[in-house]
Prior knowledge:
By secondary structure, this protein is mainly α. It has 16 helices and seven strands.
Amino acid sequence: MSEQVEHSSDSSRPGAQNPDTIARRSFLAGAGGIAAFGAGVTMIPAILGSAPTASALPVTPAPTDPLARAGIAKRLRYSCADVLYNEGLVAHPTNGDEALYPDRIGSFTKGLPHNSFGEVNTGAFATLVGALTAADPYTAIEFVPSGQPNSSQRLKLTNPLGGLAYDLEGVDAHNTTVPAAPAFASAEKAGEIVENYWMALLRDIPFTQYDTNATVAQACSDLSSMSDFRGPKVAGQVTPQTLFREEAIGCGVGPFLSQFWWKSQPYGAQYIEPRMRTIVAGIDYMTTNASWLDVQNGVKPTTLLTFDPTLRYMRNGRDLSRWVHMDVLFQAYFQALLHLMTPPDPGNPFTGGGLGCPPNPSNPYLLAQMQDGFATFGGPHVATLMTEVSTRALKATWYQKWYVHRHLRPEAFAGAVHHKINSARPYAIHSDALNSQAVAAVQSQYAGNAFLPMAFPEGSPVHPSYTAGHATVAGACITILKSMFYTDQPFPNPVVPTTDGLALVPYTGGDASQMTVGGELNKLAANVGYGRNVAGVHWRSDGFESLRLGERIAISILKDQKRTFLENNVAFSFKKFDGTTITI
């Protein structure tokens, strides 16, 4: 892939010269590769070039006068805001479904009153839309009709006002954009629901058995026959190696799951056990009309999950679904950060230490002889920056959800499939979905019902599908990690779990040598984003576009942050999800 380099020139950073670019330097292997981020870890200087000389220091010293400092801080905030303001406004395209269908069949309606076919009360939907844009939306939303009169048993709408909140760093949530979601009647949407059905049917098959499983082969054949399925393919065909994967660099290499799932996580003096509490196989939800309709009306399920009494390494779709059901949104990336920044400890068989990933070669302290990073370009900086982008990503994605797209969830679309087939409802569903092997397989397993078997009894959250919160946060957090660490290095000693999830064994696939730290970080983000698809609560387009939305949000925050530092030659250089290099 050709490498396209973007540059962000910024001459207004106080007290320092700022070149348009910084040359990417080769990081010294061996001892010089010890991570400089961990608390108490001494960086062994890497010979990357000459140490700074007096003439290379900032020509304008940092002000010591408090009033001068306050003036610079004020002007800096105005300057950052002006830069973003002058970029202009973005467009917000939609698929037109809300205006096209008077019955709102293509829109998100969960939690509102529905008839026996799951069709929303259109007056209630109009009240919701009006409340979202009211002068006092917090109060107006309280008067939106619910499909569950008993408030103690009601699934509440999830934080519509989150999409209206402002932020003081990075691009404003309302000035981010994504393409329109695939339309309800489109062949692309049909391909997406067929993929969701197969994800549900294959939840209990270990990813390591995809090459030999007959149902996997059937899924690949079915998806390959779709007229507009957007997942990765080989020579036009979906294969066991590409099934349910993302197109980001590294996601198609090695095991389906990222190596970071299976590493003991150093957490200060503690280590986090990588095995997880998962759900027993074979139990899915919302496969009958009564249970499906209750959830669409916002009835809170009382069904309890059935847990596996044995802790296991993540190894299949059900494990992944369970993990993304319970996680703190930046949890996976924080755990990856801890592993990246902790040096290896091969003499300790209990933990083995961490990966000891070197800092990004653009880190300004790699040339310093008398100082290390800490509050800037050190462990505390990368840890807090990686987590703080989460809330900014959520505000942006919540705006897209509630105020732009209001896109329906897969469970609602599958309900429409069921009622078109079994009740002759006049829905404009593409024939690719109706005639798919996936729908036939679900009907065969669930007494003629075509509802999407869900991993959770409550189904999706009570907020629209597009864009996806998990995936947007994933894209933002992983982008920060790639901006701070040298991620082009090979991933050492890859492993996979046994099919029962009780042990780890070496991964010996022919592509093991192609696995990199950056690829496994991309894969981690994709696993979380697409893991929500495996659970039945999101679409492929949700994951794909949201990862890249999160990436753009993180880049805007890095641009803002860059303006605040006094270190020489500050830059952030890394590979984006599409493999192109950006230097900020």
